[in-house]
Amino acid sequence: MDWALKSSGATIDTQRTSQTYDCKDSGLCRILRLFWTASPPDTILQPKVFPGNCWAFKGHQGQVVIRLPARVHLTAITVQHITKEASPSGTIISAPKDIAVFGVDADSEEETLLGMFTYNTEKDPIQTFPLKSMLLPRAFSHVKLLVKSNWGNPWYTCIYRVQVHGKMENRKAPTEGQDK
């Protein structure tokens, strides 16, 4: 199951997410103004992936925090970008490269590193990475994706789609006599 789906109740914690890239100060954007519209961060929570339908943040480093619809024991994360062939420019240098994933406890805002990986632009555009949550029998209500670098774009990094995989936490109902 994908826990990072907007239609299932996942949302973006905008207070802890990097600012959306605004290219209106760029000369290239003035020329391409008719084609460029900045997409909001929750674009990554929706399954429609096509060239230009990504969330871009300024520079090569940034983060997004996804509020999950339930507390989840995280097992893997999937990152998707478009292929070079689908890109109008013929390049995908705005794709994320080095990424760290954290489970975030909403109450204490404590972050737990669950994995670090490299999105490889030479491989399949949909890449799934296992997380080391098996070592921690903990469920998280938020996931933080920290992009440490991209494939060479100095102005912005684009994330097209993120999926979060895992199993919902079992909330045991109190047995009779408990909590009284």
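Second entry:
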Amino acid sequence: MLVAESEEKKREKERVVNECYPPLKLSGLSVQELQELCKDLHRKIDVVDEARYDMEMKVDKNEKEIQSLNQKIIDLKGVKRPNLKRVKKTTDDMLGACTDNSKLMKADFKVNLKTVKKEDEKREEVTDWRKNVEAMSGMEGRKKLFNAGQ
């Protein structure tokens, strides 16, 4: 059945093409007549290409308009949010929901934490830089810095 339909479509297409565009008779034509025929065919091809391009642009424009309208419809409907489930609020209840053993124990998270001792940082004294400028200027000051670094 599909083969018969495809054959029928093929014959119909050939009939329409032969009707609209009769076969070219090239025998017995001079060079001048052949050139005129080629120019005429080129003009017809240009007209058809222009029409095809115009149709493609209309189709693209319509597709973009359809997409924008679909987006507007979605925006107007709004996003459907799922119903939220109620969650237990306390940590004990949350642990109880996860495991059975945790129902027996109270959640005490601070027990397993390490204690950290804060070390006193050695801070250099902040002095007025203007007092130190004269002492550190020149070669003597650079020598002091060099010796202090070693």
